[in-house]
Specification:
Blueprint: H1 5-20, H2 28-34, H3 39-50, H4 54-72, H5 77-83, H6 89-100, H7 104-116, H8 128-135, H9 137-144
Helix pairs in contact: 1-3, 2-3, 4-7
GO molecular function, one term: DNA-binding transcription factor activity
Protein name: AraC family transcriptional regulator
Organism: Marinomonas piezotolerans
Length: 145
Amino acid sequence: MTVNHTQYKKVCLGRDYLTQHYALAFDLADVATYSCMSKYHFCRVFSEVFGESPYQYISKIRIERAKELLVTSQRSINDICELVGYTSIGSFSALFRKKTGLSPTQYRTKLQALASDPLTHPIQSIPMCYAHRLFGAKLEKSNIE
C-alpha cells in the first residue's frame, strides 16, 4: 500500500488527536471521522505509516505516561490507572506487566530505588527522560566529552 501526502496528513491528524486525548475513552470511528477517513481506511493507513495499530499506539502512550507517574508522583496505582485512561486496574496491571516485565508496584519500587542514589547504578539502567531530571546538564556535558 502506498500512502500519498494527503492520506499522510489525515492520518497524522488522527495520531495527534489520540496523543492529546490518550486518557479519554475513544471510538475509533470518531477518530477516523476527525481525520476525514473511514474507520477501516484510517486503521490501514495508520498501521502502514506508523507500524502499529491505533490501539497499540494508544496503549504505548498510556503505559509511558503511567511509567512517568509511577516514578514522579505518590498517587495510588488505581489513580494512575484512571488518569491514563484505563477503567480496570486488573487490565491495566496485566498490560503494564506485559509491556515492562514488572507490575506497576514493582516498577515504582525499582525506579524509586534507583532515584534514591542514582550514582551507584549504571546510567544505562535509568530511562533517559528520568536521567535528565536527575542529572540535568551534567549528563549532556559528559556525553559531549
